[in-house]
Amino acid sequence: MLTTLVSMEETKWLSEDEREAWLALVSIMFRLPGAVEGQLRSEEDMSLAEYLVLAMLSEAPDHRHKMSALATATNTSQSRLSRIVARMEKDGLVTRAGRQDDRRVVIAEITPAGLERLREAAPAHVRHVREIVFDRLAPEQVGQLSEIGRALNRGSNTRGAMGLDCPA
């Protein structure tokens, strides 16, 4: 009990502004993924993770990435990504292969069918993201949002979709 009292006394509590910002962030964390996922599932019959896999691969200069880098970019575990990519592989959207010089490294590559699938899904997805995020922000807020994201991601073990730095 004494430990609890000491730690409570030593805790630097959130200011009113910090509390308001935290609650706004929590609301975004819970509501936004569901809204994005819902649009993709209902209109495009794909998950956000599947969309991100296709998008990250399509943006790579050679349309290929290490699975480990792809897991980081899509903010998912390697085991979950492996299951997602296996399903997408069955649908002919991506392929996987071990690297010749290091069989421990698995490379994912988007197929022409995967590129086409992304081309079909991207317009509605981008319209939805613009509607629920960017149309509600002033241009300077977009820059602030980027800065906030970078600051919150700094020091974490993930780089996220913006920082994919491990091409195949």
From TrEMBL:
KW Cell inner membrane (keyword) present: no
Cell inner membrane as UniProt keyword: no
HTH marR-type domain sequence ranges: 22-154
SMART domains referenced in this protein's UniProt entry, alphabetically: HTH_MARR (SM00347)
PROSITE patterns: HTH_MARR_2
Listed InterPro entries: HTH_MarR-typ (IPR000835), MarR/SlyA-like (IPR039422), WH-like_DNA-bd_sf (IPR036388), WH_DNA-bd_sf (IPR036390)
Protein name: DNA-binding transcriptional regulator, MarR family
